[in-house]
Amino acid sequence: MSDRADHVTFQHGQEFLSAISERWNYQILREVFFGVSRFGELKRTLGISANILTARLTSLTDLGLLSKHPYRADKPWYEYQLTDSARELAVPAIAAITRWAETHATDGDITRHPLIHTVCGNPTDPYLACSSCRERIDAPTLRPMPAQGDGVGHETAAND
Question: Cα(96)–Cα(12) distance, rounded to whole angstroms?
């Protein structure tokens, strides 16, 4: 998965889910989203060992979810940012998971992460809405339909 204009397949979604399911990857992506972008900051915030953090950052960069940029000319120190393609998918996922966790947390010692809509400048609590009627979509009001497509790459009963 990357910001390149490569052909995207269903497999890319599976790769993304696999990547964020790894023990540290989701936490790294979440922290970068919330502004923790430098190696040392990530290490301290997450309590992760340097070698594991290095491996996870390399993996997330190779997958095209993070980009790294040097911030010191005298040392090879980097800060990390979500790529455009990661922001497209990871930001809504991180916002939804964070909101869910904050809403359903049973301990009183949870850190709240307010969100600002940069277009209007106001605090926001984002939600999923219907593209037709603009009403909020909640789990009971959403159901899947049979898949539609051209069947490229898929065998059908008619081809047997």
Answer: 20
Closest CA to 82 of 63, 101, 54: 63
Q: Tens digits of per-residue pLDDT, 33-50?
A: 889 999 999 999 999 999
Are 19 and 25 in contact, with CB atoms under 8 Å apart? yes
> What is the token pair recorded at 135?
């009403």
Task: Indicate the SS3 state at residue 71.
Answer: coil
**CA angle at 20 for the pair 77 and 123, rounded to the nearest 5°:** 80
pTM, 2 dp? 0.69
Q: Residue 49 corresponds to which tokens in the numbers above? A: 């060992």
Listing DSSP states for 11-63 in one string gives: HHHHHHHHHHHSTTHHHHHHHHHTT--BHHHHHHHHT--HHHHHHHHHHHHHT
Give the type of residue at 11: Q
As given in the structure block, the two tokens for residue 33 are 């989203």
Residue 63, both tokens: 């997958």
Rounded CA separation 114/83 (Å): 22
Classify 67 as helix, strand or coil: strand
CA 155 to chain centre: 32
CA distance linking residue 12 with residue 127, whole number of Å: 24
